Amino acid sequence: MTAIAIVPRTEGARAGRPGDGILALQRAAESPIRFAPPLPATAEPGPLYLQWLLVPDRGDGVALPVARIDWIAAEDNYLRIHAGTRGYLIRETMERLSGLLDPAVFLRIHRSTLVNLNRVKAFRRWGARDHLVVLENGTELRMSRTYHRALGSTVGDYR
Predict the structure, then answer these.
(1) pTM score, two decimals?
(2) Which whole-number Å values give the CA distances from 15 to 6, 10, 20, 35, 53, in the listed order?
(3) What is the 3-state secondary structure (H, E, C) of the chain?
């Protein structure tokens, strides 16, 4: 499968030469990851985070905006992307994908779970030492104690 990927312009590239422009064809070998367009020249350069994922959907490849993702769960050697009422299975590692997503938007709450903070309704205590993350759609996700300790630095202390 060949997909259009948006890649940043390389420094020193001249018009009409390879590397110039923002659109390039890239072979979609095993990874569904594609990068977003670069920031305008007037913006301060900063890290580029993933904006779209190429996900399989009934035999086709569909460009899924990262902003539509509710949460991501690891399933053996795959990741299940939950977006609305749909689930998409991709072959990717949690570590690699979490490194490409904006950490101000996506929070790791378990070694096998990433959650979109824009979809979080509440953080709740569950029992004496455990916690739950409740999404806007009612989904409840368990937060491990390890990731709960790191939560305070990301969204503040809610105890």
Answers:
(1) 0.68
(2) 17, 11, 6, 22, 29
(3) CEEEEECCCCCCCCCCCCCCCCEEEEECCCCCEECCCCCCCCCCCCCCCCCEEEEEECCEEEEEEHHHCCEEEEECCEEEEEECCEEEEECCCHHHHHHHCCCCCEEEEECCEEEEHHHEEEEEEECCCEEEEEECCCCEEEECHHHHHHHHHHHCCCC
Tokens read off for 78: 């795959």
Residue with tokens 């985070």: 49
pLDDT, tens digit (0-9, with 9 covering 90-100), for 68-91: 999 999 998 899 999 999 999 999
Cβ 92 vs Cβ 112: under 8 Å: no
**Phi (first) and psi of residue 139, to 5 degrees:** -65, 135
> Which of 31, 105, 26, 94 has its CA nearest to residue 70?
105
- Residues 21 and 37: beta-carbon distance below 8 Å: no
C-alpha–C-alpha distance, residues 70 and 112, integer Å? 14
